[in-house]
Structure formats: C-alpha cells, structure tokens
Amino acid sequence: MVSEDLRASMTLLQERIAVIESKVTSAHTRLDKMESLVRDDFKEMKAELKAVTEKIQTVIDFMNRSKGWAAAGIFVISLIAWLIQKALTALFSPR
According to a count of CB atoms within 10 Å of the terminal CB, is the N or C end of the chain lower? Predict the structure, then answer.
C-alpha cells in the first residue's frame, strides 16, 4: 500500500518535473530568439549610426574648408579696402 502510494507520488513528481523541464526548454528557445533579434537590431543600428556619422563628418569637413575660404576672403577684402583707402588718400590729400 505504501509503496503503491510512493510509486504514484513519484510518477506524479516525474510528470511535473517533465512539464517544468519542457517549459524551461521553451523559455530558453524564446530567449535565444529574442537575443538573436536584439543582436540583429543592434547590428543594423550600428550600421545606420556609422552612415550618419560619415555624413556628419562630411558636413564638418565642408564647414572647416568654408571657414578657411571665408578667412581668406575677409583678408583679401580687407587688403583691397586698405589699398583703396591709400589710393583715395593719395589722390585727395593736399600736396
């Protein structure tokens, strides 16, 4: 009698353990799929970020070149203004 109850209890426990193991295996499979999806998403975001960074760097490089040209332009305009001022002073100054 006791051994039959013990056997029945053991069988019930084994069935419950099998159900729990099945749930754990299923959960691991779902987690592996989610991990794979997250990794793929991060790879895509990294590639997109790299592309945006390259475009931003292109704009920064253009702005740096523009600053150089602007500085050269200001220098040339200042030089021309100074020459015009000297020429006008020389033309209209009393002799």
Answer: C
In the chain, % of residues over pLDDT 90? 65
Report pLDDT digits (tens) over 55-93. Answer: 999 988 888 888 888 989 999 999 999 999 999 888 887
What angle (nearest 5°) sits at the alpha carbon of residue 87, between those of residues 86 and 88?
95
**Following CA atoms 60, 61, 65, 67 in sequence, which dihedral angle do they give, to the nearest 10 degrees?**
20
Residue 38 in tokens: 């997250």
